[in-house]
Specification:
By secondary structure, the protein is of the alpha+beta class. It has 10 helices and 10 strands. It has a 5-stranded antiparallel β-sheet. About 40% of the residues are buried. One of its GO terms (cellular component) is cytoplasm.
């Protein structure tokens, strides 16, 4: 039996009184609601496990609690299967232009996240190895008979080439989904939210991801890398970051293609697929120019 999302939110034992959930727009993985209860505001995120996307809610809970302990994410107040309740942050949710305008603060937040979250992480936690994720998406798209299945051999060959180019890398507990809407500025502090895709990965993926998802210029990407590593990037590091920027856009495009087949949410995934494939091709051209 399907439970109405609003009714499910209203029925949580966490509330101290009757509540009237307000839907929040912008989510493309979960259903989100703003709830006022006893003078406080909360965000409720509804979402079951999504193994197709490497999203497992036990892992999201562990990551959110570690992020809270590290001081980079709001407090998690309640968890049960399919439901997470966190404190609402009064602030400005970023768009792409905001991320670029606040690049130094964003870079420092990513650095702090990578440096500190693993110290607070408790219990089992997932890996989010980018190239396994890409390969698994290929299997899923073939099994589902996606409309673009004939494009997969080329895209998979590019992913293999990128993986070989990047080579051995350090591993951190990363966010792995640095879209602009996951940054909130309360006027004093910058927060990072939504830990669905968190997991152990190369830090280059978050660096490439924030650059690719927010339209960074090459100079802005260099600035990001210089702040993160505390040194100006040389050509070798610049090329590895660009490689993972390409991988980030490919992952976002394949994620959208899988979502076309399987997501129950009302969102134009076809248009999102086209947008990310276009960005991917431009980033790949730049990578090829850098490595010729």
């Amino acid at each position: 039996m399907t439970i109405d999302p609003v009714a499910r939110v209203c029925g949580l034992a966490f509330w101290k009184g009757p509540v009237d959930p307000e839907p929040l727009t912008g989510g493309i993985t979960n259903r989100n609601f703003l709830v006022r209860d006893q003078g406080r505001k909360y965000v409720v995120r509804l979402g079951e496990d999504i193994p197709l996307h490497n999203v497992m809610r036990f892992n999201e809970r562990a990551a959110a609690m570690a992020a809270e302990a590290a001081g980079v994410s709001p407090a998690l107040r309640h968890f049960e299967p399919g439901v997470i309740v966190i404190d609402h942050i009064e602030g400005r949710t970023f768009g792409e232009a905001d991320v670029r305008a606040e690049l130094p603060r964003v870079a420092e937040l990513i650095r702090r996240t990578h440096r500190d979250l693993g110290k607070h992480l408790k219990g089992p936690a997932l890996a989010f190895w980018t190239f396994h994720v890409l390969r698994n998406y290929g299997h899923t798209l073939r099994d589902g008979g996606h409309r673009m299945v004939s494009d997969l051999p080329r895209l998979e060959a590019i992913a293999d080439r990128i993986e070989a180019f990047v080579g051995p890398t350090e591993v951190v507990f990363a966010h792995n989904d640095l879209l602009p809407g996951n940054f909130i500025d309360d006027g004093e502090k910058l927060w990072l939210i939504d830990w669905d895709y968190a997991g152990f990965n190369t830090p280059l993926f978050d660096l490439g991801g924030v650059a690719s998802n927010n339209g960074f210029s090459p100079d802005e990407t260099d600035q990001l890398v210089a702040i993160y590593y505390r040194r100006a990037p040389d050509d070798a590091l610049r090329a590895r970051v660009q490689a993972m920027l390409v991988a980030s856009l490919l992952r976002e495009a394949l994620w959208s293609m899988v979502s076309e087949l399987h997501s129950p949410l009302d969102f134009d995934y076809r248009a999102y697929t086209a947008e990310n494939l276009s960005r991917f091709e431009r980033a790949l051209l730049r990578f090829d120019e850098m490595t010729q």
